[in-house]
Amino acid sequence: MNEKKMTGDEHYETMIAEENICINENIVYDKPHDALYSTPMHYCPGCGHGVVHRLIAEVVEELGIIHDVIGVAPVGCSVLAYNYLNIDMSEAAHGRASAVATGIKRVLPDKYVFSYQGDGDLAAIGTGETIHTCNRGENILVIFINNGIYGMTGGQMAPTTLANMKSSTSPFGRDVQTMGYPLKITELVAQLPGTYYVTRQSVHKAVNVRKTKKAIMNGFLYQKENKGTCFIEVVSNCPSNWKMSPVESNKWLDENMLPFYPLGDIKIPSNSSKNNGE
Amino acid sequence: MAKVKGDIIIDIEKCKGCELCIEACPQDTLEQSRSVNTKGYLYIVKVQDNCTGCTNCALVCPDGAITVFRQSGKKKEQIAKITNVTGDLKVTVG
């Protein structure tokens, strides 16, 4: 129909949409802009903390609860989580993030409350608080990042360090006769009647990132049902203290961590179809 | 075979060069560059034009440095018409 008008001195040019596909209508993935600041994160290259921060921000944006979420940051590498997440955050004493989250949830029962803790925080110094929070069945979400080592303080042995795994305080490998066995805290809290949804995920591959996002979304949604604690363990890496490159550390995680910490749902609500188990 | 065409934009100042996206990419589209950004990291660049927009690289990126685009199903759709009348430029959208 344009050909009739192509007469005289006028020239017509047709802009084809496939010339430049970097336009806003074609975006299929972009990082969250409201719930996540554009500040560069201080984490080491390849660290799983950045992925989990981004997933929390995505879930908060998709659920539209950015003004109704209160997070509790731990002591550890992710102590500065409030510098990256544009949501209300509180800081807790070492290991006491779930206790602080309990108080926040009891004062403000309409808000979504989560605590974000590492393995040195949740499984070592805060074991008592974690177990009693889960035993009381507080309606909070606990996100537990397990990388099997104390990351911030320089790679010391953690309760979750694997047997025969080298760390700076077990330079010949963790000897289970003298140093004990690794602690499976997720299976531990799954036995308690107060927990409602207990799962273990990882972020080392794209498919696992998608599953972790679903798990975090379920964890936020189940808070409205007031049935108990949601506990999400994310098996992560620590390239700096494992003394590997990020790619090697993910491979090591796949070969060594995942056989001991198998992925999947450990406890799911009986009458719910929203699970992403394996 | 209908080829899906995608593209990515990497924020090279946020990139820390961890190479996880290179491992995640099924098309071998990405490679590490030979120059550094202002923080001294060897950032990641796109070296091939075979991106399908699968978003794997952006999902595993710990720093959220990758934005993924994928061409929508409508092909060769005319989105604007430019009429150039000897210096007088008219753009008609639609």
What does this structure look like?
The complex is a heterodimer of chains A (278) and B (94). In chain A, strands 4-3-5-6-8-7-9 form a seven-stranded mixed β-sheet, sandwiched between helices. The longest helix of chain A is centred in the last third of the chain and has 17 residues, at 206-222. Chain A has a single domain (44-267), classed as Thiamin diphosphate (ThDP)-binding fold, Pyr/PP domains (Rossmann fold), CATH 3.40.50. Chain A has helices at 48-63, 97-107, 119-125, 127-136, 176-179, 185-190, 206-222, 239-242, 246-260; strands at 11-16, 27-29, 69-73, 88-91, 112-118, 141-146, 195-202, 229-235, 264-267. Chain A has 278 residues and is an alpha/beta fold. Chain B has one domain (6-72): Alpha-Beta Plaits (2-Layer Sandwich), CATH 3.30.70.20. A two-stranded antiparallel ribbon of chain B has the order 1-4. A two-stranded antiparallel ribbon of chain B has the order 2-3. In chain B, strands 5-6 form a two-stranded antiparallel sheet. Chain B is elongated, with a radius of gyration of 18 Å. Strand 2 of chain A pairs antiparallel with strand 4 (66-70) of chain B, so a sheet runs across the interface.
